TrEMBL record:
It holds the Pfam family Methyltr_RsmB-F. The lineage of its organism: Bacteria, Pseudomonadati, Pseudomonadota, Alphaproteobacteria, Maricaulales. Gene3D superfamilies: Vaccinia Virus protein VP39. This is 16S rRNA (Cytosine967-C5)-methyltransferase. Residues 146-430 form the SAM-dependent MTase RsmB/NOP-type domain. Belongs to the class I-like SAM-binding methyltransferase superfamily. RsmB/NOP family. One of its GO terms (molecular function) is RNA methyltransferase activity. SUPFAM superfamilies: S-adenosyl-L-methionine-dependent methyltransferases. One of its GO terms (biological process) is RNA methylation. The keyword Methyltransferase applies.
Amino acid sequence: MRLGGRIQAAAEVLKDILERKTPATMALRDWGKAHRFAGSKDRSAIGNYVHDALRCKSSLAFRMDDDSPRSLALASAVFMGGRTVQELMDAFEGDEHAPTMLSNDEQAKLSGSINIEAAPDWIKADVPEWLWPAFETNFDEEALTEGKALTSRPPLDLRVNTIKAKRSEILKSLNVENIKPTEISPIGLRVEAALADARLPNVQIEEEYQTGAIEIQDEGSQIVSLLVDAKPGEKVLDYCAGGGGKSLALAADMENKGSVFGFDIDKRRLSPLYQRAQRAGASIIDVRQPPSESLKDLVGKMDRVLVDAPCTGVGTWRRKPDAKWRLSEDALVRRNNEQRSVLNSAKGFVRPGGLLFYVTCSMLAEENEAQVYEFLENHENFALLSAGEVWEEKFGVDAPKPWSADGCSLTLTPASTQTDGFFFAVMERQK
Ligand SMILES: C[S@@+](CC[C@H](N)C(=O)[O-])C[C@H]1O[C@@H](n2cnc3c(N)ncnc32)[C@H](O)[C@@H]1O
């Protein structure tokens, strides 16, 4: 496919997402199935135009004074993909698969005739208008920077499974270009986001992945797992284990000694953990399926309980940009209720003197600090501890610093720690 065909395809996919509300991954997959002639390079270029357009939907629409799929696809190719107006004109000329030729008005707008600096901050930051006050409250004068950082393409992060390998060994053996150690996580490797039409490497075909020496895991997720600071020999419950990304990281940090119990209310989400644990050689992982009666023997016995709570996923908007525009106030309220409920159910597994960890991949105080403080108010036998000491011990004093509203809990963000957004708090059960 040529440039014009790719941009036209991006406009069609965007129409499916924006007008028919199809999730982006499904819309891209459906387009691929209906256009079997398109190669993997075409698909990834189209995916880049679509995802960039969604990441920056409000600012691109402002620059084009139009939010149609066509305008967004054109603006994505120029403002995000680095194509010039002339390149588009040359590419569209005589190509029957390309969009219709650019009008004079489109040429002017794609050349920057509308100044984005005149836009309100929520548009410049590409944060939905109704959420902007929450961003301003949380990040104050850095709100714009934090919002904009969520519009960038995410890197590919790998976690070295220290049960099987050392980071230095993988760095030498893994056949992937431009890979480097992560700045904060001592067990991570990073390939920076690809530019323009380029794509990230497919590490799943590499031997190191197949044999369980590496996992794909955002550095932020590695960091919060390491902050749990689980020790060899301890008993740890991962109460919202999902596919088990954090269970696996916990088992490795515990040198595969002790027990990690992986539970999730959703059997389907939990199912990959059986195979993943096997591949990783994480033999201390004990998967417990719902209902929660399967956890009866663990009540009051856990040294550490991790609640990686269901949330809006604001911190992962770089990876799932369509979720940003789908999020509603109702959904936020629903997540808040689930968070309350999950914390209440998980607390009973912590032994006296044990620790309860509350983690989300959100950057909204309603889902983070507010949940923790409400829980503490209702449970006098739990006390908030500072996560700062463990941070320095694990990552040193020179590592980039996360946000902290209270000096105890931590919020990682793309702008502050160059990771996905994550919230982390630790509470001790005192009796
Ligand atoms: C953020 S995801 C977990 C991601 C996972 N820990 C990882 O690292 O890959 C939240 C999970 O909480 C689960 N969940 C929601 N309500 C729950 C409940 N009441 N009890 C246990 N798990 C619950 C969801 O099914 C979902 O898998």
